[in-house]
TrEMBL record:
<dbReference type="Pfam" id="PF08352">
    <property type="entry name" value="oligo_HPY"/>
</dbReference>
<comment type="similarity">
    <text>Belongs to the ABC transporter superfamily.</text>
</comment>
<dbReference type="InterPro" id="IPR050319">
    <property type="entry name" value="ABC_transp_ATP-bind"/>
</dbReference>
<dbReference type="InterPro" id="IPR003439">
    <property type="entry name" value="ABC_transporter-like_ATP-bd"/>
</dbReference>
<dbReference type="Pfam" id="PF00005">
    <property type="entry name" value="ABC_tran"/>
</dbReference>
<dbReference type="InterPro" id="IPR027417">
    <property type="entry name" value="P-loop_NTPase"/>
</dbReference>
<dbReference type="GO" id="GO:0055085">
    <property type="term" value="P:transmembrane transport"/>
</dbReference>
<dbReference type="GO" id="GO:0005524">
    <property type="term" value="F:ATP binding"/>
</dbReference>
<dbReference type="GO" id="GO:0015833">
    <property type="term" value="P:peptide transport"/>
</dbReference>
<dbReference type="InterPro" id="IPR013563">
    <property type="entry name" value="Oligopep_ABC_C"/>
</dbReference>
<feature type="domain" description="ABC transporter">
    <location>
        <begin position="5"/>
        <end position="256"/>
    </location>
</feature>
<keyword id="KW-0067">ATP-binding</keyword>
<keyword id="KW-0547">Nucleotide-binding</keyword>
<protein>
    <submittedName>
        <fullName>Peptide/nickel transport system ATP-binding protein</fullName>
    </submittedName>
</protein>
<dbReference type="GO" id="GO:0016887">
    <property type="term" value="F:ATP hydrolysis activity"/>
</dbReference>
<keyword id="KW-0813">Transport</keyword>
<dbReference type="InterPro" id="IPR003593">
    <property type="entry name" value="AAA+_ATPase"/>
</dbReference>
């Protein structure tokens, strides 16, 4: 299987303030890849760098250091022409379906416009393709929606429309940033199911940014990988079922144990570990040590001094933790 997107040693620093002298390290040393036709979920709480990473993967943001490869080619070294040829192959779906769609355009034109401009489709062919794409995302009967506007749709319907628009370029990868966070609870599973179907039926690689563990499990149950982000670093990554069913990093364990469960009996009896701090770590390029050390109940002196690297603990499962893992495996 070929790599669709590969991120190597990516760091991102945002600079601001007077003379841009204040530097914030938002991502550091990120290595991540998704192969063609696969699934990947990036999980973490708010402020951990998920959106920045997804935007860098989609070439909407540029890394301060490191490389991003699309289908084996370094996008930082591509000419404009080369990039233009590949751009349609990687599509980005925004978090907010309420502001990402033009409110004064009909649903037909939202899907048709990119087909007109990029593929030169007209009249009958255009109508046929718009109908096909709307059916692919479950907006049926498609003709019923043609002359309606985004405000006629629910949040879930709008997200489907945004996905239909993304499909107009026949992408090989879709990157969706928190695609269910602004949608009613009852519709969330159906949107994740839609991404699963696009992956299964059309072999489109899908990267989802999520903070909902239940949704991450549902998406990677059959296949796919999960990367857990904390303080701009990947602290655990690997096969979805391994990471989510057998979490080894102390942050992943807390994240999973504190996610809501439907069974009231289970919820009542569950012991949730309390962290030493719930503050989002603010890191600069000079920060030392593990980003989770200030919150971790198991930290040792070394955690404050040295940044742990990702180490394999079993096949396709890595963690970055001085306490729970060393080069010989899990302690
Ligand atoms: N353009 C920017 N300039 C300065 N700081 C930024 C910029 N974009 C993001 N940040 C900061 O980077 C950090 C990570 O932001 P990011 O949006 O990537 O996190 P996130 O995990 O996606 O959080 P959320 O789920 O809240 O979107 C935050 O502290 C944010 O304030």
């Amino acid at each position: 299987m070929h790599e669709a997107i590969k991120v190597s040693n990516v760091s991102k620093v945002f600079s601001r303030g007077y003379l841009r002298k204040s530097h914030k390290l938002v991502l550091s040393g990120i290595d991540l890849k998704i192969t063609e036709g696969d699934r990947l979920v990036i999980v973490g709480e708010s402020g951990m760098g998920k959106t920045t990473l997804a935007r860098i993967m989609a070439d909407l943001e540029w890394p301060t250091e490191g490389q991003v490869l699309w289908f084996g080619q370094d996008i930082g070294r591509m000419s404009k022409k080369e990039k233009r040829l590949l751009r349609g192959s990687v599509q980005y779906v925004h978090q907010d379906p309420y502001s990402s769609l033009h409110p004064a355009k009909t649903i037909f034109n939202i899907v048709a416009d990119p087909l007109r401009y990029a593929h030169g489709l007209k009249s009958k062919d255009l109508r046929k393709r718009v109908k096909e794409l709307m059916e692919m995302v479950g907006l049926t009967p498609a003709e019923y929606f043609f002359n309606k506007y985004p405000h006629h749709l629910s949040g879930g319907g709008r997200q489907r429309l945004a996905i239909a628009r993304a499909l107009t370029t026949e992408p090989r990868v879709i990157i969706a940033d928190e695609p269910i966070s602004m949608i009613d609870m009852s519709l969330r599973a159906s949107i994740i199911k839609l991404f699963k179907d696009l992956n299964d039926q059309y072999n489109i690689a899908v990267v989802l940014v999520l903070h909902d563990i239940g949704a991450a499990k549902y998406f990677t149950y059959e296949k796919g990988e999960v990367a857990i982000l904390y303080g701009g670093k990947i602290v655990e990554k690997g096969e979805g079922t391994k990471v989510l069913d057998n979490p080894l990093h102390p942050y992943t364990r807390v994240l999973i144990n504190s996610s809501p469960v439907a069974d009231p009996e289970l919820a009542r009896n569950r012991q949730v570990e309390q962290l030493r701090s719930y503050a989002v770590p603010i890191r600069t390029p000079d920060s030392k040590g593990c980003p989770f050390a200030h919150a971790c109940n198991y930290y040792i002196e070394k955690c404050l001094e040295r940044d742990p690297q990702l180490v394999p603990v079993e096949q396709n499962h890595e963690i970055a933790c001085h306490v729970f893992c060393n080069r010989d495996g899990v302690i």
